[in-house]
Amino acid sequence: MFAELLVIEPDMRLVLINAILRDVATKQDIERLKDSITRLGERIAKLEGAYGELTEIIGDLDKRIDSLDRRIDSLDKRVDSLNKRIDTVTKISWATLLAIIGTLIAIILQPLLGG
């Protein structure tokens, strides 16, 4: 029945041919697809190169951060040492000041106490 319609109705053949042609890829379609794939490959290659550079930069930054961490640790130790020295000097200063005050009080009170 379908074959009969194709023979009898020329419009039916045209409808069928148009329907089939919509789903068929032309040489141009294939060339455009190849071009798109090629461009996509080039972009991927560029991204891979940029990724490599970015990886190197991140590696360098990691090294610099590690170096800064070591320097900060060293600085922390030096500050702690300085704080201990300041505490020691402060204690010695207070002790010296109290000794001077005690000596002055003794000197002032000596005549009053009959010495």
Number of E-state strands? 0
Write down the domain tally.
1
Q: What's the number of helices?
A: 3
**Strand portion:** under 5%
- The percent range for helix content is over 70%
Query: What would you report as the Rg, rounded to the nearest angstrom?
Result: 47 Å
Largest sheet: none
Order of H and E elements: HHH
Structural class: mainly alpha
- Global morphology: rod-shaped
Q: Which spans have pLDDT < 50 for at least 5 consecutive residues?
A: none
Name the average pLDDT: 90
Q: Termini separation (Å)?
A: 147 Å
Question: Which features does this protein show?
Answer:
single chain; 115 residues; mainly alpha; 92% helix; 0% strand
Task: Walk me through the topology.
Elements: H1 2-8, H2 10-22, H3 27-112
Helix pairs in contact: 1-2
In short:
The chain is an all-alpha fold and 115 residues long. The chain has helices at residues 2-8, 10-22, 27-112. Helix content is 92%, strand content 0%.
